[in-house]
Design brief:
alpha+beta; 41% helix; six-stranded antiparallel β-sheet; 598 residues
Length: 598
């Protein structure tokens, strides 16, 4: 991947400066351009077509259209052949030039042809327009700022934070962050700054100085056409293999993350069908209840990979924490970034690309939370009874208290509450407003399809993929998730949701597809993935570090409504596990100290 930056005024020096703050995303080359209409900057991580002819901004032969591009187009060779038949000539071997000339030939219809992970901006000089687009799943990030005068786009939020614009915290985004650990769709933590949503493109009119169009060109589909196990298993095996093969295309070394769970193990199993020299990487913790390294080792031994286990303890965490706000330049509440960052750091010493199992839980219904949502959903017939007793909920057992409350919520609100960091017992209008982000995605016929649709559009791009992108690119490592291949996602949408979750078993159909390929011990065990034992560290080795950055931190008043000291003491005294909330508060404060307090 790479880093891109641009804005609607002339300042090549600023474009170079802002691009340089993302040099970790592209240590191999840099480039900048400026004219009276706009400025562009780029940092390159060379993956395909390593020569200087692929440096960016990259221009057509006529120099009328240019591009800054972050990502990979995996089917670029077939598109290149199509363009050659149309008479186009190429000066590089890059997928970047294919995308550029594809846009020149087909306009925004080129997005229907590409299969990849990408975020890019095309500068159309004659049309006096900037065209920005982001891939279907949101694997690659793309932010923009627009206050009616200044327009800025960037791969990382720091490109906006360091540009000199006014920085005012969005209270609605902060409320959402405290609830879910990440900022809302489209919004960011700063007023007038936005995330371009996955599967969306934007046109900025340089003459009119305005965003003239923002269009969703792709959405996840749930048109069930595959209803038998046999057909689904066959399709999953063949499509996953093709998705893995596409992501092994590179002119640099390729490896894989291996947690020892189903998803990463399935990816590794397919990779070894196409190479006999594969590097894999996993994490080992000093807390036994979070250590899954023995399962990763079992898979690595089965497929004869060159396996590395990254050991992790509280000292590693304390050393890493001060570095995080630079890379996670929006507040980020998912502490599983810690092992992800450390394993990426080690992997980057050997490889430049790493495949992962991310996206499988979202498209095949694998999360544990689906068990609770399934139970709640099946209580729909009992809603009248629950509503009748809800007024007496204080006198009910705790489990029935929860369902008495759920009975008064719509299905999307029920699921939003399940996903929240805080279980809200006294719902206010503000709480319900935060839940509204889930509403557009509850438009399917089956409860699981609704939950998957919401997670694919919210949790996946704004939490999971953000976590992986920042952790990997901080170490100049490109992550590639085969489960989020366009064709793989389309296939999953066609599979009957009753096959995805069967008999209370998540990812049931994927597990069946992996039988005979992976051991049952790997397929059917419960897993943590790259989880993090911060609940232990926050009570022992790191409790003073946390206290200084939560209870004792008073540089802003955004958390005056929270009983932070009570959360901290209850956690340290082992009355409750409040590690997620303490982490979320701490990360905001460290972000504030890095980006707002200077």
């Amino acid at each position: 991947m790479c880093g891109i930056i641009g804005f609607n005024w002339a300042d090549e020096a600023l474009a170079e400066e802002l691009a340089s703050c993302m040099d970790h995303r592209g240590p191999d080359a840099d480039g900048a351009y400026s004219d009276e209409q706009c400025s562009l900057g780029h940092r390159r991580l060379s993956i395909i077509g390593l020569s200087e002819t692929g440096n960016q901004p990259l221009w057509t032969a006529e120099e009328d259209i240019g591009i800054v591009f972050n990502g990979e187009i995996f089917n670029y060779k077939s598109i290149r052949n199509d363009l050659k038949e149309q008479g186009y000539e190429f000066k590089s071997e890059t997928d970047t030039e294919v995308l550029l000339l594809g846009y020149k030939e087909w306009g925004d219809d080129v997005l229907d042809r590409v299969n990849g992970q990408y975020a890019f901006c095309i500068y159309d000089k004659p049309g006096r327009e900037l065209f920005l687009a982001r891939d279907r799943a949101g694997i690659n990030p793309l932010y923009y700022y627009w206050d009616g005068e200044q327009f800025i786009f960037t791969s990382e939020f720091k490109g906006i934070l360091k540009s000199g614009v006014e920085k005012s915290v969005s209270e609605s985004a902060l409320d959402y962050y405290l609830m879910y650990g990440y900022t809302p769709p489209e919004q960011t933590i700063i007023e007038d700054a936005y995330k371009l949503r996955p599967g969306t493109y934007l046109r900025f009119d340089l003459d009119g100085n305005m965003v003239e169009e923002q269009t969703t060109y792709w959405e996840a589909s749930f048109n069930t056409t595959i209803t038998t196990k046999e057909k689904a298993v066959k399709a999953i095996r063949s499509e996953l293999d093709r998705a893995v093969q596409r992501r092994m295309i590179a002119d640099v070394p390729v490896g894989a993350f291996l947690s020892g769970g189903l998803d990463s193990s399935a990816v590794v199993a397919h990779m070894t069908q196409h190479t006999d020299d594969l590097n894999t990487y996993s994490v080992s913790f000093d807390k036994q209840d979070y250590d899954e390294s023995q399962y990763a080792k079992k898979v690595a031994d089965q497929f004869n990979t060159n396996h590395t286990t990254v050991e992790f303890d509280a000292n590693d965490l304390e050393e890493l924490l001060p570095r995080l706000p630079h890379h996670y330049d929006e507040p980020f509440g998912d502490h599983s970034l810690l092992p992800m960052f450390l394993v990426a750091q080690v992997a980057s010493e050997d490889v430049t690309v790493a495949l992962s199992g991310d996206g499988s839980d979202e498209i095949f219904g694998g999360y544990e939370k689906y068990k609770l949502f399934e139970y709640v959903t099946y209580q729909e017939h009992a809603k009248p009874a629950f509503k009748a007793i809800s007024k007496f909920s204080d006198y009910l057992p705790r489990k029935l208290q929860r369902y008495a409350l759920y009975a008064n919520l719509e299905q999307y609100q029920q699921y939003a509450n399940i996903n929240s960091y805080q279980y809200i017992e006294d719902l206010t209008e503000d709480d319900l407003a935060v839940y509204e982000a889930y509403k557009p995605y509850f438009n399917q016929d089956h409860w699981l399809s609704n939950a998957i649709n919401a997670d694919f559009n919210l949790y996946l791009p704004d939490d999971i993929l953000t976590k992986v992108d920042r952790a990997c690119l901080a170490n100049s490592l490109e992550p590639r998730p085969p489960f989020l291949d366009k064709n793989m996602v389309d296939l999953a949408g066609k599979i009957d949701p009753r096959l995805k979750r069967s008999g209370g078993e998540g990812k049931a159909i994927l597990k069946e597809a992996m039988e005979g390929i992976l051991p049952d011990e790997i397929i059917y065990r419960e897993k943590e993935g790259f989880g993090s034992p911060i609940k232990h560290y926050f009570r022992d080795e790191l409790k003073d570090f946390v206290k200084a950055r939560t209870v004792d931190y008073d540089e802003h008043d955004h958390f005056d409504h929270l009983d932070i000291e009570g959360l901290y003491e209850a956690h340290v005294d082992k009355e409750e596990d409040y590690s997620r909330m303490l982490w979320t508060i701490m990360m905001f404060n460290m972000w504030w100290e890095t980006w707002m307090n200077h």
